[in-house]
Structure formats: C-alpha cells, structure tokens
Design goal:
By secondary structure, this protein is an alpha+beta fold. The protein has one domain: Nucleoside Triphosphate Pyrophosphohydrolase, CATH 3.90.79. The protein has 3 helices and 10 strands, in the order βββββαββββαβα. Strands 2, 3, 4, 8, 9 and 10 form a 6-stranded mixed sheet that branches. Strands 5-1-7-6 form a 4-stranded mixed sheet. A hairpin with a 2-residue loop joins strand 2 and strand 3. The longest helix has 13 residues. It starts with 5 loop residues before the first strand and ends with a helix.
Length: 159
C-alpha cells in the first residue's frame, strides 16, 4: 500500500547575512530526513504579514536577535518531495530571499555558531545552531544547500 504524500503550499521568507567572508546558514530540520543540508534562515509568512516583516520576526524567534532588511534578492519557487518518517510530504513554496544584516546592538562579535530553535519542529527535535560557512567553501560546492540553486542566487554577495 502506497501512502499519498501530504501536500503543503505556502509563502516563505528567508534571509542571509554575509559577514567577514562567511554566510550564516542553518541545517535543514532533522525530521525532513534530508541528511545534512544547509538553508537560509526563515520560515512561513503568516496571513496578513508582509514578507519583510516575516523575516524580521523569524530571526527574532529563531535566533533571538534583531536584524535589518538590506534588500530583497530574489523571489523563487521550491517544489519538492521530502520523505520524513511520518510519511511523504510534497511542498510547494513561494520564497522571498532577503539580504540582511544584524542590528548594530545584536551583531555577533565573532563567527561562533548561534543557538537556534525551530519552534514548529516535532516534539523532541533538538536545538540546532546557525553556522557561519566560508563563502569560498560554498562557492566550491563543499556544503550541500537547499535549494540547490541557493549559492547561485547568493553569488553576487559572495564575490
């Protein structure tokens, strides 16, 4: 018996911060069962919320830090199937990708990982951390990213 995938559609706001030759990214949620892949930080846009407001909220929720929106880099779509233990999941997202910077009072003084927690993760999901990945390693393809085109979308920021 084959289980039909659960289908989800939504709008997502994500953002990246480039600092000292590094990009702040977070690992994909473990429950999606993708193996280690890195993604821009963010989440779903709530009804009636603008994408730029959503990314500010998401960074505050996930990293407990204030950020400033520099600019909208791209709007793109992801259509992908995940295979978590709970059963197949088809996702169709419209994604707003932003260039961000930390508010001056919340800018990290080093490149240590930043504790993060995905609030809507299933019960028992561990805390994770956002990491500063070297731009040279991202451009060389040394870190798997989601979506696979993320490095291409970020290329103007990584030179």
């Amino acid at each position: 018996m084959t289980t039909e995938p659960e289908q989800r559609i939504g709008a997502v706001a994500v953002g990246v911060i480039v600092q000292d030759g590094h990009v702040l990214l977070e690992p994909m949620a473990k429950w999606l069962n993708t193996g280690l892949m890195w993604r821009a930080i963010g989440g779903f846009i709530e009804f009636g919320e603008y994408a730029a407001d959503a990314i500010v909220r998401e960074f505050k929720e996930e990293l407990n830090r204030d950020i400033e929106v520099v600019r909208l880099l791209e709007v793109y779509e992801n259509i992908v199937t995940f295979d978590p233990a709970s059963g197949p999941l088809d996702v169709h997202e419209t994604v707003f990708l932003y260039e961000l910077r930390f508010a001056p009072h919340d800018r990290p003084t080093d490149l240590e990982p930043l504790a993060s927690y995905e609030q809507d993760a299933p019960a028992g999901e561990e805390h994770s951390a956002a990491h500063w990945l070297p731009t040279s390693e991202l451009l060389a393809g040394e870190h798997p990213v989601f979506p696979p085109t993320l490095v291409d979308l970020l290329a103007p920021l990584l030179d």
